[in-house]
Amino acid sequence: MIRGEAAAATARWLMLAALACGRGSQETDGRAARATAELECASVVWHVRDVLTLELGSMPGAASALARALPLLERSCREDAWPPALRRCLAEVPLYGAAGGVAGLERCAPHAPAVLRRKLEDQARAL
User: Fold this and answer.
1) How many whole angstroms separate alpha carbon 65 and alpha carbon 69?
2) pLDDT tens by residue, 29-66
3) Which residues have a Cβ under 8 Å from the Cβ of 33 and sit 6 or more positions away?
4) How far apart are CA 42 and CA 37, in angstroms?
5) What is d(CA 77, CA 14) in angstroms, rounded to the nearest whole number?
6) How far is CA 81 from the centre of its chain?
């Protein structure tokens, strides 16, 4: 586990990364829906990973914490139903500038239901 201030910051940012996961559209063909969901999820998760890497790149322990979180994020992407507005918001966060980075990710939090935020916060603290 990461200790101190770095742990708190990493947990918060990993929770935001976890929020990026999502399910695809409601298609009648189950296989197509799963494939779409995983593709959308992978795209959003990789984008959020890029945002977090730019912000946390030099923070001690951040890379290993993010590496531990990615499998959790992928599982959540497949198993939890996320609002399309949340996925879209996170996918559109710029990497740079005032509207980008972690501040941009934080602006997407209102798109996540409270129960989902609590679940992800608990998982992030356990990393």
Assistant:
1) 6
2) 566 555 556 568 788 888 888 888 888 877 888 888 88
3) 23, 24, 25, 26, 27
4) 8
5) 14
6) 13
User: Chain-centre distance of CA 29, in angstroms?
Assistant: 27
pTM over 0.85: no
Minimum mean pLDDT range among 9-23, 44-58, 111-125: 9-23
Q: How is 37-77 classified by DSSP, letter by letter?
A: HHHHHHHHHHHHHHHHHHHHTTSTTHHHHHHHHHHHHHHHH
Question: Alpha-carbon distance 42 to 82, whole Å?
Answer: 14
